[in-house]
Amino acid sequence: MPVDARKYADRDFILAQYCTHGFSMKPRYTWKPPPDWDDDEPPNKDPNAAGGVGAAIVCGQSLKGPPENNAWDIYNAEASKVDSELIKDWTASLNSLLVFAAIFSAVLSAFVVESKKLLEQDPSDSMKDAMVFYSNQRANGTLIPYVNTDFQPSTMAISINYLLFGSLGASLVAAFASIVVLQWITDYDLAITRGGSTPFYRANCRHSRYEGIERWKMGGIVAALPLFLHFTVVLFLVGAIQWAVWSWPLPR
């Protein structure tokens, strides 16, 4: 190796050792500059010149890029990636659930309005019974006051309304729970974003909040809400099928 290349290579090696282990560390050997050492001459920055010697190493930098400040910065950076993906997935799932719950509740309300009529006596039927009663009384030559009979809805009508009203109530509960969980997620996001004044306090705040959502099974709640909404759809379908079969029985 030429003299100037060896000079810069030795100097770069010593600087790299100091940058890696700190200036308080004593080198393994005492480096002595060669006789033709020139402190005023800048190091060779051409990687193809002087035997392949690369750019001079600057203390505080790494060959792979700028290092992290400390372990807490590394933790905060990795935790931020995890939290961003987690919050994004949870928010998208709950927003979709809210949209579906709103549309489903609107459609279900129309069915509930009609099914409620099955629990009430039809006024035309009551009027028809009264007219038949008085016609029979006049034919017999007697006059007895008409007493309206108590209306008793059928068991099938009661079952249909149980299913439809239960489906509507469960849908509203799922929508309300989704709103509460979304507020919970927003509070968690704000807390870990604001954090503290130092990397340590930000990491401590994030860890405390993350332990809280793990303790309260927040991920399980978010995963259970769509299943709860699926249950409401099943109730609606069972009630609608019963209503259809009862209203239009199959021919035998």
UniProtKB/TrEMBL annotation:
It comes from the Eukaryota. Keywords: Membrane, Transmembrane, Transmembrane helix. Residues 72-243 form the DUF6535 domain. It comes from Serendipita vermifera MAFF 305830. The chain crosses the membrane at residues 94-113, 162-185, 221-246. Residues 31-50 are annotated as: Disordered. This is DUF6535 domain-containing protein. InterPro entries: DUF6535.
